[in-house]
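Feature request, filed as a ticket because there's no other form

It would be nice if the structure record came with a short human-readable summary line next to the tokens. Right now we just get the raw output. Example of a typical job, pasted below so the devs can see what we mean:
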Amino acid sequence: MSTGSPGPAASPVLRAVGLTKHFPVGRRGAVHAVDGVDLDLRPGSVLALVGESGSGKSTIARLLSQLVARTGGDIELDGASSTVKGSRGLRAYSNQVQMIFQDPFGSLNAIHTVRYILGRAVRIHQKVRGDAADRAVEALLERVQLTPARRYIDKFPHELSGGQRQRIAIARALAASPRVLLADEPISMLDVSIRLGILNLLKELRDDLGIAILYITHDIASARYFADETHVMYAGRIIERGDSETVTQHPAHPYTQLLVRSAPDPDNPAVRTGARGEAPSLIDPPPGCRFNPRCPFANDMCRTRTPELMDAGDGREAACWIYSDEPGAPTMDARTEVRA
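Raw output as currently delivered:
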């Protein structure tokens, strides 16, 4: 398990405060993609954002990269509010915060060689040209373990494997010498056999360069391996957070328990678990806790009042009324299972 340095005591380099994004949908209102999300990205640490498809994870990455304008809340870089205006402002911001996209083939221009793709990034961010640019490109290839560099530098993306293409995408991000990497499901489109290599590369970058990493994934098992802290997202909101070992091994929120039980179990492959029903519409989300239509523990409080994150023990926080001392709060019956 990851034990990134300098750890949770370090001041955040990038922070989301009440981050909100609603996408207008004609006369029907808006898609509540992200609602009031707080998170801190600290130097030398990995924060995993876990949840099923459509939960808002990728939208958060695009908001933090400022490729998409936020509806509400704030983004703070080094403690100061940051709003990008114009191409010059975006370039200055991207020197600090870089994005790694899910599809390593789609994110690389198929008509250009590695030399051009990385060389352009070097010229923009490092302001070097000619032989100095070529040396910088070779150094980036070596940094992402594509050696010898001359074997890869004049290849086109289609001549590389999926893992090699993702390493090129990571190298392009590193050309800016960023302090934050936003990795949007960086291994989900890769063969299982090479996923670990990409995660280990990102761990080395975290340790060697002190980069803060947001790791977005639907695979809670990889979050335990790679991340120092894990936030679980459901229907646009953070519903549980804490250190990765505790959240993944002793989940507090019923939805997190569902995710853990849904992960393949090699010791008991016949086990099939899942939530009742489907994820809610984000155009017209249910009142109260958004997980309440699928939760076996939900009562009237869950259906009418939205829970905030509250202490769930062992350093975890969960947005669930089960952990409230208020009269009428639901209780978790150990005999009840979250299953289909």
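Something like this underneath would help us a lot:
The first strand starts at residue 14 and ends at 25.
The chain has ten helices and twelve strands.
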